[in-house]
């Protein structure tokens, strides 16, 4: 679809770029080489306040071109690093023992990362998915976006010198191909499955190849613990709530999205508005390397995502041929594993060649120090099934959201493309509808199948952690196919836990059960998550807050903003008073710390009592309670922490009443006091004096709190008492959006990108929104033409590639 542009500002800055033949982006096997994307593409990039680009184009390829160009301008080093990763070339440039930033896999070092991603490239996995017809494969529009993105990125590289010190003059900053862009999508899709088990895949070797290999049995408790820790350490979370028209001031919906993502590296968000006149007009945030808006809004609907509790993979236990541990039996017939021999170029050394082992069920996983503690013995091995390894539909699903006119359109995109790999979706629209759905790609593990086909190991892991371990020796234990599923072996849309038009729909990374406490969702399979189990402190605080908001009614976008920065510490409301009272009752005000030394903790008691139970930057007592609660978590098991246990009849308010008689309570208090005094920090010092980041040589106080405290505005900083307390933030609140509608055709939106738009410290947009976040201020984004053109910061750039 082609359109003429209208109403663009006069006197624009024109950047005319001419492409010439560019070198190949990566060394490929003979016959498999792809040249970097180029072509006669163009777009108009209009920048407004805080460096937010509004990209206007005539086609999807042009839109991808403008997006790739503008992302490179802000994030070239981070993007280039990620492209090195998905090409499997980290060892070549950075050495095999170096580490990735963890954004595209869990690989423990560069060599492991390269062995996996070179293997994916060598097998032609992504090319095969690109060739699948839609909807099982990506649409022409999605492929045009990827092609255009690569061309735009390459055009920026040709026309600019990199000023970011992270990669200035680096040889690994090179042109990319459409395949590189698609491979990055693939990496994000499998990060919950194969990508989270890279070390286990690349290290798995038959027992004869390992000294002493072959005798160890799998440990169910260790595997359950590993699966839980893997989910807890995923470095991603989120809150989102949608309010229906019956709760709002004008009868239209409201949405507050607060994704918790890394503040550094390749899983950052980047703000953008994308427009093809008459076809698409959407604003929000894209994940780096993506040409589509991942979380956002348009003139009628807004959506956000939260990381789900669904386990996006399962294991198959293989019965091996006693004569050959690389042969497994299915219905008594032998099948030989597929050898995938991968060679990786290494900096300052000879190439490294390793073998991976693949089966009809997926790759064999086994590693002594991997994320899944599983053995490969002479009789048994385990294969990882990751259905997202056949999913390159993320872009189309997001594109469908951007085109949707209501929550029904959001649900329709999920149903058609089925491309969300590991997230829930929460949405609201201008007609007052709400939506929560756990529509994600999951292996089709029904409770019945698990009951029939689980091995002894699976009978322990499935109920405890949602991880199915199926008997691979029986063909009847295959996953099967739902009639409405776009690929075999996954659940179709009809099976997804979904809640429509509830007064509020909320999720804070617990299961779908209490998306609305008055309308609990039940009846879904265990692999989706639990029902009737204790909720996290963050979920409990969120339900309490949003239910009260819905009950109060007459809500506006301003109420969403207040919720985001209420900084309420759920655990503080539950435990601080009890802790202060028990502290005051200690004989002589003395407790023993972990070293057995007596500590005068009497000064801590009034601080805990007077604390306002928030994690605002000016809150006195928040830091003391935070350090105390972290010690409680390490010393007192959750089952002993509360006097009143969890009750499924009152899940939002139980457990409660701190058990101050539990062994470890007084030790935790003494440890916290000792720690703060040793760092020279007053017990009642304001949180923001010691929870901060440094930008442009200045300390910026940061509001919010850690996961264990149950704070909606979650931040996870690094404790460094030698340098003042918490320094830097590793992950937490990222692209925040509060969205409503007023009937004008222009959404009423407030946004905030907490870590700012650019990673380049030389950019004026590397810390401007971080300063806003520090002060709990918001951006009023410009969506409609009249607002964009009236921006005092407007800068218009015409970008062409020929």
TrEMBL record:
Coiled coil: none annotated. Residues 1-26 form the signal peptide. Keywords: Hydrolase, Signal, Zymogen. It holds the Pfam family Penicil_amidase. It comes from the Bacteria. The keyword Signal applies. The keyword Lipid metabolism does not apply. Belongs to the peptidase S45 family. This is Penicillin acylase family protein.
């Amino acid at each position: 679809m082609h359109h003429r542009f209208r109403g663009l500002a006069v006197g624009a800055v024109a950047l005319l770029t001419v492409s010439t033949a560019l070198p190949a982006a990566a060394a490929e096997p003979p016959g498999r080489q792809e040249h970097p994307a180029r072509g006669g593409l163009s777009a108009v990039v209009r920048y407004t306040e805080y460096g937010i680009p509004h990209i206007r184009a005539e086609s999807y390829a042009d839109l991808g071109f403008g997006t790739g160009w503008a992302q490179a301008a802000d994030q070239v080093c981070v993007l280039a690093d990620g492209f090195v990763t998905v090409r499997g070339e980290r060892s070549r440039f950075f050495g095999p023992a170096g580490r990735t930033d963890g954004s595209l896999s869990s690989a423990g070092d560069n060599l492991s990362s390269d062995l996996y991603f070179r293997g994916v490239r060598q097998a032609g996995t992504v090319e095969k998915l690109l060739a699948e017809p839609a909807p099982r494969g990506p649409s022409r529009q999605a492929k045009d976006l990827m092609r255009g993105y690569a061309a735009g990125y390459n055009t920026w590289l040709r026309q600019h010198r990199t000023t970011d010190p992270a990669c200035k003059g680096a040889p690994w900053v090179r042109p990319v191909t459409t395949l590189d862009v698609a491979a990055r999508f693939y990496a994000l899709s499998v990060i919950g499955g194969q990508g989270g088990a890279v070390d286990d895949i690349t290290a798995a070797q038959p027992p004869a190849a390992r000294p002493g290999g072959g005798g160890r049995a799998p440990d169910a408790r260790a595997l359950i613990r590993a699966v839980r820790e893997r989910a807890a350490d995923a470095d991603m979370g989120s809150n989102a709530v949608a309010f229906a028209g019956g709760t709002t001031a004008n009868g239209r919906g409201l949405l507050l999205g607060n994704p918790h993502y890394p503040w550094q590296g390749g899983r950052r968000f980047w703000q953008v508005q994308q427009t093809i006149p008459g076809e698409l007009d959407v604003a929000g945030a894209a994940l780096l390397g993506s040409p589509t808006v991942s979380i956002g809004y348009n003139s009628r609907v807004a959506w956000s995502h939260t990381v789900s509790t669904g386990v996006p993979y399962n294991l198959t236990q293989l019965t091996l041929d006693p004569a050959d541990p690389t042969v497994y039996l299915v219905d008594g017939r032998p099948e030989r594993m597929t050898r995938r021999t991968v060679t990786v170029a290494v900096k300052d050394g000879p190439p490294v060649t390793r073998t991976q082992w693949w089966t009809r069920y997926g790759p064999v996983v086994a590693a002594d120090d991997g994320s899944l503690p599983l053995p490969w013995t002479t009789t048994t091995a385990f294969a990882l099934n990751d259905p997202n390894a056949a999913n390159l539909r993320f872009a189309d699903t997001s594109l469908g959201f951007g085109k949707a006119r209501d929550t029904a359109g959001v649900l329709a995109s999920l149903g058609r493309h089925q491309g969300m790999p590991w997230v829930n979706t929460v949405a609201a629209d201008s007609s007052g509808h709400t939506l929560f759905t756990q529509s994600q790609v999951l292996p089709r593990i029904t409770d019945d199948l698990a009951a029939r086909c689980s091995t002894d190991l699976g009978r322990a892991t499935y109920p405890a952690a949602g991880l199915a371990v199926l008997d691979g020796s029986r063909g009847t234990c295959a996953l099967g196919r739902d009639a409405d599923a776009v690929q075999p072996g996954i659940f179709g849309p009809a099976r997804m836990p979904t809640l429509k038009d509830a007064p509020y729909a909320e999720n804070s990374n617990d299961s779908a059960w209490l998306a609305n406490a008055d309308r609990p969702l039940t009846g879904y399979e265990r692999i989706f998550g639990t029902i009737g189990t204790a909720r996290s402190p963050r979920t409990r605080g969120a339900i309490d807050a949003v239910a009260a908001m819905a009950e109060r009614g007459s809500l506006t976008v301003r109420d969403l903003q207040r919720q985001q920065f209420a900084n309420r510490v759920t655990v503080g409301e539950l435990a601080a008073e009890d802790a202060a009272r028990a502290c005051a009752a200690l004989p002589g005000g003395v407790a023993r710390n972990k070293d057995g030394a007596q500590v005068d903790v009497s000064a801590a008691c009034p601080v805990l009592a007077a604390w306002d139970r928030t994690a605002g930057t000016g809150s006195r007592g928040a830091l003391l309670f935070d350090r105390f609660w972290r010690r409680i978590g390490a010393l007192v098991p959750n089952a002993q922490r509360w006097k009143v246990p969890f009750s499924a009849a009152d899940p939002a308010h139980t457990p409660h009443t701190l058990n101050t008689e539990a062994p470890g309570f007084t030790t935790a208090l003494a440890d916290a006091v000792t720690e703060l005094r040793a760092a020279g920090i007053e017990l009642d010092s304001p949180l923001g004096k010691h929870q901060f980041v440094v930008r442009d040589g200045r300390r910026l106080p940061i509001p919010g709190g850690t996961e264990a405290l149950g704070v909606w505005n979650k931040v996870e900083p690094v404790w460094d008492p030698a340098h003042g307390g918490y320094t830097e933030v590793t992950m937490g609140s990222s692209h925040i959006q509060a969205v409503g509608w007023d009937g004008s055709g222009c959404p009423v939106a407030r946004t905030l990108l907490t870590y700012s738009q650019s990673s380049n410290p030389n950019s004026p947009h590397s810390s401007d929104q971080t300063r806003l976040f520090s002060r709990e201020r918001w951006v009023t984004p410009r969506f409609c033409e009249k607002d964009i053109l009236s921006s005092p910061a407007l800068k218009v750039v015409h970008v062409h590639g020929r």
